[in-house]
Design goal:
Elements: H1 2-35, H2 52-57, H3 59-62, E1 66-79, E2 82-89, E3 92-99, H4 100-103, H5 105-112, E4 119-128, E5 134-145, H6 161-166, H7 168-174, H8 176-198, E6 202-203, E7 209-210, E8 222-225, E9 230-234, H9 239-248, E10 252-260, E11 272-281, H10 285-304, E12 308-311, E13 314-317, E14 323-326, H11 327-335, H12 344-353, H13 364-375, E15 384-387, E16 399-400, E17 403-407, E18 409-414, E19 417-424, H14 429-444, H15 455-462, E20 468-474, H16 475-483
Parallel strand pairs: 3-5, 6-10, 14-15
Antiparallel strand pairs: 1-2, 1-4, 2-3, 4-5, 7-9, 8-9, 10-11, 11-20, 12-13, 15-18, 16-17, 18-19, 19-20
Helix pairs in contact: 7-8, 8-10, 8-16, 11-13, 12-13, 14-15
Amino acid sequence: MADNNQNNMNNQQEQEVDINAVRKVRIDKLNELVANGQNPFEIVSFPRTATAGAVQADFEKYEGKEVAVAGRLVSKRIMGKASFGHIMDSDGKLQGYFSRDDMGVDEYQAFKKYDVGDIIGMEGIVFKTQTGEISVHVKKVTLLTKSLLPLPEKFHGLKDPELRFRMRYVDLIANPEVKDVFVKRSRIISSIRELLDNKGFIEVETPILNTLAGGANARPFITHHNTLDIDMYMRIATELHLKRCIVGGFEKVYEIGRQFRNEGMDPKHNPEFTTIELYQAYVDYHEMMNIAEEICANACEKVCGTLDIEYQGQQLSLKTPWERLTMVDAVKKYTGLDFNNDDLAYLIKKGNEMGLDMKEDTSWGNALYNIFDAFVEEKLVGPVFITDYPVEVSPLAKKKPSDPRLTERFEFFICATEYGNAFSELNDPIDQRSRFEQQMLAKVNGDEEAQPYDEDFCTALEYGMPPTGGLGIGIDRLVMLLTNSYSIRDVLLFPTMRPLNK
């Protein structure tokens, strides 16, 4: 291991030497341009008439016509009196044919000094080469930006994940398929907005800085407001403010936004992440299941063109309706333990024999959830809705009228991962106060993720909130699923990274 680390350090040092040498040469070229009154950084615009993708997609429209295109020079092949090069812009790659006879000696010589990585504008006639490649017969070329550092292909590409995430700007240039992920991410979010807007939902914005961190069980980030001289918390959920909107008379609201949780990092978790939370008055969690299916299936159809997809080697179908199982039934199906009929002491004993460490006085609900969490979730290929969660782990959900040990709550799972959480929302202020008190006791007993007592939210409920269904879906995980990405860092443009000097 030590030898490998030393080799990596040596390779990095050699690369840095090469890059520094290249940078010096390029700065010398820039200085020469400046001295000749041709500073590319003084150019403020370039009047493009087409993009590379447009020319490639509709050659018949552009053939024989003059265009002005611009992009990053990603390849260059000098062949004496004529040369070829490719530019890449936001939607494609296009070849340029550069001839001394057409451009003139001075401009052609200037082009030959351009470097891969420079951003240029090409003006000329669209044609096809003898090999059939759509190209621009360049009459004039303009250096728009001088690149002072080489693209990573010169140094064996940009493949190391840590370096890719730290230098996403280079990753997007070196690995064009990465950009496709973020184009799809944008389309997924747009599809969600379009669907909900068409259903009559109103998009609202709620505070990111709060005096309490509520709406979920999580550790918050803490900051300080200098003017008010108070500590504040970055939000961990939008739930409690959105439900205040329901109290105030909005009947369908949603928010797509960033959440912040001071927790661990792994392929499924990043300290800041994006969710969609929505709330609708006069419906229950069954309607939220319908909306969850619709959101995911609609996004899948938009970006994948089909509901039959592959995720990390697993074949899936998002065709609706999805399977629906109560937590009790799921535990019985995958472990054989029957929480409807088996004795609680027996269930605790069997759970401990399977590897848990539950105390003898563990409640029925906690025993059920612990066994589900440890032994069932990992088997849920799905998509499947798991419904009717214990009240102990659902402080904001309404109790089931038929069994007060349970709540009208579901989570849905795909490939053993939870993608969304929903309730028939608790609107009884007396019950809500009692649940908050239980959460405070849990915090006193060491649960750092227990929710705080939100007196203002309880006051809001006392004014009356109609029966309401609520749903939250993790946008990043949905993007991972629909782009076949293994890690959440693959679908975040700038994921959280430890500084290099730490």
